[in-house]
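Researcher: Good morning. I'm working through a list of sequences from a screen, and I'd like to move beyond sequence-only analysis. For each chain I'm collecting a predicted structure so we can compare shapes side by side. This is the next one on the list. No need for commentary yet; just the structure.
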Amino acid sequence: MRVFSCFKYLFIFFALSISVRCESIARIVKSEGLVYIKRLGMSTYAEVAQIGGSINNGDAIKVGEYGFAAVLFLDDRSVVKIKPDSQFEFMDTRNTRSLNIEFGTILNKIEKENRSKTFRVVSPVSVASVKGTEFAAIINPSGVDQFIGKEGLFDVFNSVSGQTVSVGPGQKALSGSTGNLMQAPADPREYPTDPEVENMMEQKKKPSERIKSEPEKVKEKAVA
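Model: Good morning. Structure tokens for this chain:
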């Protein structure tokens, strides 16, 4: 009887653990082109992203060369827009919300209201931490990260050297895999274009001015 009780409590513990891990934290509000989801515990990006689809704690998202996506966090209504060739994982803890990004470009509009967690963009080299601000993160596989401020303040930490700099509007931080970290002025043209705006501008072009459609590009790439 005692053994049965132990198994019962173990079952409840694991069930609660799974439910916490699979907690829905965000929804996909925009998805165009090649966008895929890898669920927690899976090894591949096998699920095609759908508008309205949920993002659970521990899931990962991948936007291909021809695509973009936007994700809305359910608790504080913060928005992350994801440009092509980007890949990262969502990870929530009690005190932090992290986007563990392998590579790519994301535009973050982090709301100050109703926030109970520090928002972080984490790369193999750097950690950008904010309470509420608007900024872009450009993570290059070569090991040089750029963080560009648009509104508010945030800190960038280089995990190699242990250095930290603060970044404000119109400023950027360059963080390298050798430990180099510097803050500098940012030209407004350096801030990445909103992928949704880019898509709208493309749709407004005359047919003769538009670039080749995505299926054609993918087909040509496959043939090559």
